Amino acid sequence: MTPQQLIDFDARREAVLREHMKTSPKFRALRRDRRVAFAASVVRYGVAVGIMLFLLKAFVISQSGPDGYLATVQPLLSQLPAGSLLAQSVAIDPYSAMLADAFTELTAPDTQSAQNALDGFSRVGPATSEF
């Protein structure tokens, strides 16, 4: 078989296989399942990114305070239409404020502990070695 005949044979073989795969019910079901799985993974990643952005917004609110956050996003809010989805997602909502309060409580220093690091050392005492 010459190289040209081999190329022609492979091309015909591929065409026949493609046609059989198009008409095969099992292959069509497999392709349909792959499309559904791909769409589900895209939705899953979109939801994960949305949750991460929501947590980031709550963390920024907890660190800079509501007024500082509004001052930060005010240039963006001034350029967006009033009722748009992006404007609503950037603005402070009750849930992000509630989560920001929880973040603030977690990251706030404990007022009942030592006022500074040296107070903690003085309570422990000087380092002595008895060996």
Structure report:
The structure is a single chain. This protein has one domain (about 5-110). About 80% of the residues lie in helices and about 0% in strands. The protein contains 5 helices and no strands. Helix 2 (about 25-80) crosses helix 4.
Structural class, judged by helices and strands? mainly alpha
SSE string, helices as H and strands as E: HHHHH
Low-confidence stretches: none
- For the report, how would you describe the main beta sheet? none
For the CA atoms, what is the radius of gyration? 31 Å
Per the principal axes of the C-alpha atoms, what is the gross shape? elongated
Count of alpha and pi helical runs: 5
- Indicate the mean pLDDT: 83
Number of domains: 1
- Count of distinct strands: 0
SS strand fraction? under 5%
Helix content bin: over 70%
- Termini gap: 91 Å
Keywords: Membrane, Transmembrane, Transmembrane helix
Transmembrane segments: 36-56
Key words describing this protein structure:
131 residues; mainly alpha; 79% helix; elongated
Ordered list of secondary-structure elements with their pairings:
Blueprint: H1 3-23, H2 25-79, H3 85-90, H4 94-107, H5 117-124
Helix pairs in contact: 2-4
Provide a brief overview of the structure.
This protein is mostly helical. The protein has helices spanning 3-23, 25-79, 85-90, 94-107, 117-124.
